[in-house]
Amino acid sequence: MKSVFYLLDTAPYGSENAFGALNAAAVSLNEMDVTLGLYGDGVYLTIVGQDSRKLGLPNLEDILYAYGELRVLVHEPSLVERGLFGQTLIETIELADEEDFFEAMESSTYVIEF
Amino acid sequence: MKSVFYLLDTAPYGSENAFGALNAAAVSLNEMDVTLGLYGDGVYLTIVGQDSRKLGLPNLEDILYAYGELRVLVHEPSLVERGLFGQTLIETIELADEEDFFEAMESSTYVIEF
Amino acid sequence: MKQEQLDVFLLTKPPFSPRSELCLKLAARSGKARIYLAGDGVYNLLTGIEKVPECDVYACKEDLEARAIMAGEKVTVPDDFYSDFIEDIMEHCRHEYTF
Amino acid sequence: MKQEQLDVFLLTKPPFSPRSELCLKLAARSGKARIYLAGDGVYNLLTGIEKVPECDVYACKEDLEARAIMAGEKVTVPDDFYSDFIEDIMEHCRHEYTF
Amino acid sequence: MKTLTIVLTDGPYISEYAEIAYKLTEAALKKYKVNIFLYLDAVHIPKKDQNPAFFINAGQLFSELAEKGAAVRACARCAGARGYLPEEEIIQGSNCKDYFPGIRITSLYELSEMLSMSDRVISLSR
Amino acid sequence: MKTLTIVLTDGPYISEYAEIAYKLTEAALKKYKVNIFLYLDAVHIPKKDQNPAFFINAGQLFSELAEKGAAVRACARCAGARGYLPEEEIIQGSNCKDYFPGIRITSLYELSEMLSMSDRVISLSR
Predict the structure, then answer these.
(1) pTM listed for this prediction
(2) Do C26 and B106 touch (CB under 8 A)?
(3) Which stretches within chain E are classed as H helix?
(4) Which of B85, B66, B67, B88 has its CA nearest to residue B77?
(5) Is ipTM > 0.90 here?
(6) Which ranges of F1-126 does DSSP label H, i.e. alpha helix?
(7) B9 touches chain C (CB under 8 A)
(8) Most buried in the list A15, A41, A47, C47, measured by CB within 10 Å?
């Protein structure tokens, strides 16, 4: 089976990229091995308790839960650098050190960036 | 007289920002004191010998020459960091250390970013 | 009179972006800065922006909620973030910057 | 057979952008990388990208000319940059990345 | 009355700036005159027919601001490049048939004009 | 025949990616099948009436690619939000009256389809 690695390195809500990456990842779940790789500012997506109703934007945390079968791989150094280690993070994510994160990219058929 | 400081921190040609900043700066030359501040990736605009004909894009170096009365202030640390110190730079630019660059921003009525 | 010396910053970029770093440098130089965090700017609370000396930090409630970011004690979360910001830049400040 | 082990990178971002840094890290891990520089990617020649070990660097002529960047001796400037790149990614590489 | 000018360079949805500009303008209009200059990709904001299933219609928001008194203008060079062409006739406050009411395409010199008449300027760009 | 898919997320002019994608596709079409998926702001690329005074008409370039055999598709969600609405009728290869010929609005599932039929994928985004 082909595998696709969506690399998201922009913060959620400030741009449409995170929503776009989630939707793109979701439509391939039945046909391919899909990984959403959170890198750089993309790691902000992992914080628990997002409530975007007052912004009139879709709740990206809810979307993550809705696609429970989506593998979400988080680049741990990005997370640490951004001060997220003390935060409660979404449980279904998978933390990866740089080596493992890069290996997941290298072993995917395609890497697509947002 | 009011003064406006256009801060350009993106590289020329890869995005429309540099062209946009130059045009915006140009139209105010008669009414205000205008400074184009090149910071970060914006400093690439200063390299001599640009020839964008084959890309089908306007030559930004020519536009800089055409608006000779535009003050172009270049953040020297950005330039050094990007390896531009050995390059031949456009003569009409003004190099500024960080202190002078920030002072120029602080003494302007408006700062507009591209 | 002292009020007039205020510098106001609207920061909408996350930490480490070149614009955020520039904002922090200018705020540190100001002597009396007020930083308004909106959009992705609220992520700067995770990296301690409220500890910049001589600098008051305000954060937008809706943006905090969307991003699940807590504002610490030193951070003001106004009822009407945008009205307060507008009032500050139109009436009470020496210089205004947006990053 | 060895040909098949090639990793090909298309880099269109200037130095220090998070994407460029990621590209360089992956290229350094590759063991046999070919980096194609297009658009603002050619600015990486100013910061010595051609010195990455076990890595061949190609640059797009039109993009070099527009930006007034010289390609050093170690850099290949193909007559038909995009055809060469396409041939490489479609026929000769293990993995392809775009940054 | 003091005047605030907002300069935008991003299109709708891709970034949050159209919405932030809306909130800033709404707050400012209570006491001040507001100009909005749509530059580069921001000329997409007033496009008609937007039908976002998950976001708030940005064109409608800006049309509402124009109705409340904000002067919303789009750069002619940027608009023309992107397929928004000005016409001679002004219908419902707009000179572009692809735009929401109240929003006009003007020369870039209008930006300079706005700046020289302003007390404060805010620019929002990625 | 091998297949290349290109995913774009930026609109025309603001970035160079539409033009780079054009050059990649032109080169690839000589030997391969090419799919282009227009996502997020890239759905602005095929808009009719573009009249750039200083750049090359991006809509025309992509229409040309479609004519040469590339499958150029725009995401329905992104297009709808931005005011490009699909119609039932397909005229000159397009189901959107605001789009250049040969370019169609489709569901995002088409991206997944393209990926599963491809040998290589290139994504260009800011």
Answers:
(1) 0.97
(2) yes
(3) 17-29, 58-67, 76-81, 109-116
(4) B85
(5) yes
(6) 17-29, 58-67, 76-81, 109-116
(7) yes
(8) A41
